[in-house]
Amino acid sequence: MDVEASDVISCLWDLLWWACSPFVLVFLLPFVIVFFLYLSILFLHLYKRKNELKEAYTHTLWQCARRTLATLWDAHATVWHGYELHGLEKIPDSGPALIVYYHGAIPIDYYYFLARVIILKGRTCHSVADHILFKMPGFKLLLEVFSVIHGPREECVRALRNGHLLGISPGGVREALLSDQMYPLMWGKRTGFAQVAIDSGVPVIPMFTQNVREGFRSLGTLRFFRWVYERYRVPIAPVYGGFPVKFRTYLGDPIPYDPSLTAEKLAEKVQLALQALIEQHQKIPGSIVRALLERFQPTDTAHATIKQD
Question: Which residues cross the membrane (predicted)?
Fold first, then answer.
């Protein structure tokens, strides 16, 4: 009798595990990206040790490390997401520009973009990141090598005036957690990025990645997680996914510097341009199944389908 009960329990456990394992897997896959990030950090520390770098990091010595990591991340982009970048010619070969992008639940598409720019343009795009990233253990060297800053306005202006590219997502963590498959922009009344562009006298280039919300999704839209973030600014909402959906990044036409525009007017203009990219290249609402099938669909056919819809 005990043997039969044990067999039943074992059978029920196997059935439960079989039913739940896909759900467990989709919450574990995002940690693969974290693992890759720490592998990148390990590589940088080994590179630093090999070249006997102490306090000062020379730009030329880190070029090889950046290009090596960019090649590895680009390979991941190609294999896992069939990554495509359209409109790279809009990124200047030299000189500054402010790149404004939509923030996915995990901005892995932006990492792929940075890698592709390093490989094809030979340029390192500086980036503005949330303070949370700077508190991640072990991330200091990675952020320094890839010129990631916390984003005080003066520092952003300095980077642009020094001739660098600078990437920023006005929606930030809020957009990452609370946006959904309808792809709403969640900028609120943020105009700081626009003021940076005006103070620097640089063009603004909008950027959007098709299916970025289907690759990774957040539970931040659930009432509890939203309440916690809105009240305490603590991003505890779980992220799930890691699905090998098709990623296509699109760069819009540069918005030239216009000294007559106020920060509010420029922010509105950039938001409209980014919204136009979303409407042109993303079928709403987003669908994980459709995004997976697009891995086998030619780019021209995908464009025609979205325009028709």
Answer: 15-44
